[in-house]
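Hey team,

Filing this mostly as a record. A colleague (T.K.) asked me to run one chain through the structure pipeline before their review meeting, and I want the input and output archived in the tracker in case anyone asks later how it was produced. No errors, nothing strange. Just documentation.

Input sequence:
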Amino acid sequence: MSLKNNKHFRRFAAALMAGTMMVSMFGITTFAQGNNGGEPTEPTEPKACTVITKKLEKDENLYLPATTFTFTITGAEESDLNDEVKNGVAVQAGETGDVVFSDGSTTGTITATAGTSTATETVTLGALDVKIADNATFDGVGIYRYVIQESNENPYPGVSYDTAKRYLDVYVMHSKSGGYEYYFSIVDSKNTSTKDDGIINNTYKYTNGGLYDLKVTKNIEGNQGILTEKFDFSIQITADHEGEKFHVVVYNKDDVQQRVETIEVAEGTRKGTVSPISLGDDEYVVVYGLSAGDRYTVTETTANKNGYVTTCKVNDIDTDLTDGAVSNNSDITGNVDITFVNTRDAATPTGVVLNIAPYIAMVALAGVLAFVFLRRRHNNF
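Output structure:
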């Protein structure tokens, strides 16, 4: 065979192998996504392919958690392979570092920001792309398996994490140009013959634990207390995470929403304040979504004024006020219920009673004498 014919033969053989691989792969459409990963022999970076989408469902009255979700991509272990064969091709364990996220790292992140909505909703937070690393060293054509997994090493209060393995199968095939083509496929780790949608769902809910509400109620008491009077409050939250927001709602005595506010903590100090909050008798305000490490300071700015004596209970326990304020110095372990009571009483003027008492006694004595005298006169007749 001439050199020229040999060259054509090699090209034909490479094309035939690639075509065979593609036909076999597309014959199991539950696997193939058909994304061209590019060729490492070319100067341009391989194309990235989206394989993971992060979604989060949250409860009403909560802003999105201000947190970052972390993922890793590693080569599969032997236990992830189970001697699996796809269309006559054995699945191999990929090498960690040959397939990376789009930034070139084996660790990927998706960051959530607090947002503007406090409705019950499911939000798409972002997606992760993967690509072939520039220095990838595959042994040749074949199917290489990787594991993508969400981390829960630094859990955020109220968030559920999905740490189940997602298998990423990478099909390495010859390309017509003499290099390689790559096709990516996310498969169900429990049933690897089934394509996975790559969606990782998380929830941010009270039922997951670690989330609590702060309720502040005003009571007015005493024989001189004015039940229609309003008293002003300030609520400061020091958050245990940067970027947090807290939903604040003021209710009247009939539990009807009167006002809505937001506490947004400042960068660095992690402090945020809402003020003034005016409350009348049996009215209250709720700060939603606190966690154990959050700190609060609730201050009645009009405490002990205008003849009122201000006292406070925290979860039905009498608590001292400092300049009209109450705060926590330890972790929150449940819902916090704070009641401020303003009492104003006017004492009965006992001095007036003492002053007229002698006259009352004299009148009573006169009445007795008149009764006796008149009765005797009547008997004489």
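Quick notes for T.K.: Residues 350-380 form the longest helix (31 residues). Residues 207 and 218 are 29 Å apart (CA to CA).
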